[in-house]
Amino acid sequence: MLTATIITCLIGIGACGAVLARVTPRDERWLILACFIATAPMSWLMFHGVRMPFDGWLKGVLGDGELLQWIRTTYAPLTEEPAKLWPLILPWIGRAVTPRTAPRYAIALGGGFAFGEVIMVAGLIAARQPTIAALPWYQLTGFINERLMTFAIHAGMTAIALVVWRQGAGFAAGLLLAMLAHWLSNFPITMAQRGWLGPNQQVAQTIVALWVAVCFLAALVLLGWLDIGRVGLGTLLYGRALCPGCGYEFERRLVRGLTFGDQRYEPCPNCQKWHWTTRSRISSAKQ
To answer: Which of 9, 32, 14, 35 is nearest to 116 (CA)?
Structure first.
């Protein structure tokens, strides 16, 4: 379990760090790092310091019945989404979040939380399922893959809260939408636990795994659509292109265009025509 946890943490931190280093101005990187560090312990604190004590009290009041089972589905959204946003109470961080910078702060806040969650979940598995924890790391690829996807998923949910807030709808509205997205992303897990996905456990687990993958891809698309930092996610992956029709150089977008090898079929934002394009050599040299 320890090896799988270390591998997951290193890959997750490396991926977040590579993206953030690319899109964050040098003089702002200390704020981004502070956000990552500040949310890292929040998963453990929320689970052991809030959720478990509250659940014990509520179980004593309501009993272990149907109502409590439904209330438990709200624990993660109600505690984790605010926990990822607590650094915003610091004025120098709150002021730094704008509609343009919100996505990169979401990656830092959500990524830090996901990093801490990897360690917390690994600890729970070691304590509650020692036979699974004793497996060699290469038999724990399910844990590794799922935990890695949560880096993007947590960032996507936090991006919803920050962007809605900074677009003028209000902090509460952004937080509520992020909580709703979180609850919906967890609902198939609830369905599997309650037997609503059928009696076959392998089928249920496959459906849940596919849903997590869909949430992961949706988070990536959202972050790309929000155009993280000064460079969009499409530009990070595909670079810039030179329109063969009008000669205009433009940033590529993640969700506009089809990739075939080193070529993409995509629209030029200047002439509005679709062309086969290749990566701009001029931009590659600048990068």
So the answer is: 9
Q: What is the pLDDT, as a whole number, of residue 287?
A: 35
User: What DSSP line would sit under the chain, residue for residue?
Assistant: -HHHHHHHHHHHHHHHHHHHHHHS-GGGHHHHHHHHHHHTTHHHHHIIIIIHHHHHHHHHHH-SSHHHHHHHTTHHHHHHHHHHHGGGGSHHHHTT--TTTHHHHHHHHHHHHHHHHHHHHHHHHHHH-HHHHTS-GGG-HHHHHHHHHHHHHHHHHHHHHHHHIIIII-HHHHHHHHHHHHHHHHHHHHHHHTTTT-S-HHHHHHHHHHHHHHHHHHHHHHHHHTT-TTS-HHHHHH-EEE-TTT--EEE--TTSSEEETTEEEEE-TTT--EEEEEB-HHHHHH-
The tokens describing 83, both together, are: 């926990």
Residue 260 neighbours by CB under 8 Å, 6+ apart: none
Q: Check pLDDT > 50 for residue 230.
A: no
Inter-residue contact 38 to 87 (CB < 8 Å): yes
pLDDT at 232: 55
pLDDT at 166 over 60: yes
* Predicted TM-score of the model (pTM): 0.77
Rounded Cα distance between 41 and 53, Å, is 18
